[in-house]
User: Fold these one by one.
Assistant:
Number 1:
Amino acid sequence: MKTGIAGINLLKESEGCVLHAYKDPVTGDKPFTIGYGNTYYEDGSKIKLSNKITKERAEELLLNLLPKYEKIVNDKIKVKLTQNQFDALVSYTWNTGGSSTLFNLINNEAGDSSIIKWFTTKYITANGIESDGLIKRRKKECNLYFKK
């Protein structure tokens, strides 16, 4: 599957777009981030703190790197997904790298309540402190996952 417009919009909204490299808010240093949450370029080179890009380049970088995260979801999920479910999982994977536990819950058809609990209680902290931004993002991903 490929990410649909709802997934791309959720990812963009959650990440925001910053056209100059900035320090990781949790570490106060690396990894440096640019565009829509990118820590590296298409060739694998890492973002440097001095890097700047245009809005067009940020869009291009997002679209060029999106297939990596789509592949993770496509490879790890063995059950049929709706477009909304796929989009939510790609957004989640873009942000976290993915979670074997979440993927296993979905593959084992653990039930809605287990998946909702996962989205609302996991990967919501930064430096050990609950993050309002991550809590909101997980809620949006959960809502998209269960949207009919």
Number 2:
Amino acid sequence: MFDFAKDAGAALRNAIGGGKDDASAQDLAQALQQNGVTIENGQISVKGDTVSVTGFAGSQTEKEKAVLILGNHKGVAHVDDRIQVRAPAAPQAGVQQTAAPSRFYQVKSGDTLSKIAKEVYGDANSYNQIFEANRPMLSDPDKIYPGQVLRIPQH
């Protein structure tokens, strides 16, 4: 179970137009699609401020992005992640098959990607690694907000 700041996420299109604050399963599935994230046989359900998701991801990165997209929406406080990562069909010689799981970081007031990179990697100039790991959810390295949860990949 992953926790998010319920009131800090982005408002969904239907939530803005319909005047509702809570995300629906259909809204969230559309958000995954718009961000290019595919969960095979994915099922999303919403109960209160908790989103449950099942299905299969092609990689650990795809799974983590799905959790972040679902959680970083207004009205979502928890994501019950039941996504399984599919094993690759045939291993290739010399290629690492599974990426180490990333850690998640909740943005605090005054944070920048450089500040976060300095804290987690010891090098402020590594901010681009965090930015790239969170694309397409982030469109600009300077556009993060308190309460947002970011993927911090292994360095």
Number 3:
Amino acid sequence: MGLALMGKKAGMTQWFDGEGRAVGSTVVVVEPSVVVEVKEPDRHGYSAVKLGYEQTKEQRIPVPVRGQYAKASLAPRRHMYEARVRDLEGYSVGQEIGVEAFSEGDRVDVTGVSKGRGFAGTIKRHGFSSRPKSHGHKMIRRPGTAGPTGPRKVMKGKRMPGHFGAKRVTMRNIEVLKVDAERGLLVLRGSVPGHKKGLLKIRKNDA
């Protein structure tokens, strides 16, 4: 359980460490999230902070959600999410939490929706090898038989062609290389799921 913030993937770039080595990195734009509600164990059964992200027009969010922002006297946000925390001290309704909640060297878990690849074959989807491309081979990229003849059916979990990507993916234990509080930027080591401008949830790693 740890504080989580939402951001948008700006893209990838090079980051040079202290020894001059170029490291692949991802830049994330983290707009401050506002505390909509503080959930206490005595009342709600668990301790968490309900946050709103990205300002939007009131007519673009559902009516029940509007009431939550009206109750807290806050401008509506496009996204609402919860972050379970162990200690509620220091959190209050209306408080804005930005990228300064993270520090260089922190380890975070990043959750996003992977890029959608549409309908893909077994070579692209599962990394199968192709057949020989010599004379006489017609089914070069075909997966072959669907399984043994005994069960007379396709076994569950069989790796076959199908929808590839567009799934919720979490990458864990990613290092924070740089925190730019003035511009609201977070530089993470390596890649994260999703396309440019894709929505990400960044949570402090508990390990």
Number 4:
Amino acid sequence: MNIVTATYTVAEKKGHPVMSSQDAYELLKPLFNPLQEEFYLLPVVGNECVAEKLFIGGLGAANVDFRVIFHKLLTQYPNCSSFLMAHNHPSGVLEPSNEDRFLTKQIKKAAELLGYHFLDHIIFANTGYHSFTDQGELLVRKEV
């Protein structure tokens, strides 16, 4: 019989204070690559987060596997209970695509099942950003 084991370690990465979507955008803006779409996971521990690039695509899309997102959270950020996700639109168009909206709904469902607070999905470009939470498109769970 094969036994699968997992090792959980706390990431020793320096975080940045993030209290709003504007803070997250300021963290992401220097990372903007105008030649390819990139997807970032931003795990939050306390009031700080790290922007970690998980997926890279072409000019129009990046394939995102939400299982990888939660594997990363569980194995490298075990003290994290909240996270954001973000990706850029090299075109500069900030309006979410249908695929962006579908992915956001799937991530939200998975986060709720696993007990995470999915705080926001941010689409950013050199012209600004779109926050699903700021636009009322992603309601954050309230603790009772």
